Amino acid sequence: MSHKIKIKKGFNINLKGKAEKKIVESVQPETFAIKPTDFQKITRPKLLVDEGDTVKAGTPILFDKLMDQVMFCSPVSGEVVEVKRGAKRKILEIKILADKQVEYVEHKKITVSDIAKLSRDDAQKQLLKNGAWPNIIQRPFGVIANPDDTPKAIFISTFDSHPLAPDYDLLFKDQEIYFQAGIDILSKFTNGKVHLGLNGNADVSKVFAHTKNVEIHYFSGKHPSGNVGTHIHFIDPINKGDLVWTVNPYGVIQIGKLFLEGIFDCQKIIALAGSEVKTPQYYKTYSGACINKFVENNLKSDNVRCISGNVLTGEKIGKEGYVGFYDHLVTVLPEGDKHEMFGWVLPTFKKLSYHKALGLMSFLTPNKEYELNTNTNGEKRAFVQSGVFEKVTPLDILPTYLIKAIMAEDYDEMEELGIYEVIEEDLALCEFIDVSKHDIQELLREGIDLIKNG
């Protein structure tokens, strides 16, 4: 059974530099890292290793004292060469010098037919101690799921509509058996349905379209049609007291492989894209890879910004930075650190804007690819209530009033205006088009924290 849903609100940001469908396997970084900052609200991480220790792929590296049963494990085998800390000794990165040949912590394997006999408790123990559990995210709040909870449903989006998004059919080619096994494992954790969101704008997926034991939905339209939050809203919205889980396809496959192969396999294909990349393409590597080998001699200039993830929600990293746990994309853009006289007054077709403002004519060329930099083109100013946030947010909420309620710390208004339905990626477009230059995603997280901890 499948449903087709058309997203009528949204905005596509067409950027130059989409990755060519070519996978490079010969280029491999020397170091990899686990970053506690990749995981929302790990507040009290406890290290299980020291510098100089030798680890295998799947060796527990740390846990959060507030959820000590969830282990975060090494993506590769090798030597722990550095524990990088920030202010107040906050752990930022655990760096591992990788072996030439990855060795794995081996666990008990099961066959596909044995998955049906597996109890929830046994599946949960395996996921918790062997590194795969952090793939499961809880809504509301967008934090790692609590193993003691039972969600009303589980949602998986099998495509990405963000700018320069990688092709999921290419990323997960020939992984169907592991994906199906992961689905069968996850279905043990809910009494409801497992919902699968497919791309209604593209050809039928060869990897995901024939998945069993799920309810399939096709989403078409502009971004954020690929966001799992959009899928949840149109299929089974979250109300106060509700709880759902979300998992990305990579996490589902990693879960399936943990049981079928008995290893915590962090092999990953990432896309290196953006207008400043000479040869945008895909690289086969491991989770937490350092990007230095990928960008070496592959950039058009030195004054660039490297982003782990997409331009709307990604994290700024340097040319020696590490790919985030949940990311399959590294975006490289020109650094916007130059002042441009009359930049928004002179007529031009070179700049992209949602607004039909003086001088901006991008609305006349909706399919054009743009070379944008990171300049915000203005400073923060008083909150301008223009009504445009609602035009790019397909969810049935009022984002302008929600943000104002957060700024006022009005708990009742936040709940009534739909804060349980959203996390940062759901309002990222609002930040992009905001003429007031507010950090909408940061404000939203402040509001989520207020509700969660209040």
Please outline what is shown here.
The chain has eleven helices and 20 strands. The protein has 454 residues and is an alpha/beta fold. A hairpin with a 7-residue loop joins strand 16 and strand 17 (281-286).
Radius of gyration: 22 Å
Overall mean pLDDT stands at 92
Quantity of strands, as a count: 20
Helicity range of the residues?
10-25%
Write down the overall geometry: globular
Taking the alpha carbons of the first and last residues, their distance comes to 41 Å
Order of strands side by side in the largest beta sheet? 1-14-13-12-15-10-11
Q: What percent strand?
A: 15-25%
Q: Find the structural class using helix and strand composition.
A: alpha/beta
Number of helical segments with 4 or more residues: 11
**What's the story with the biggest beta sheet?**
7 strands, mixed
Low-confidence stretches: none
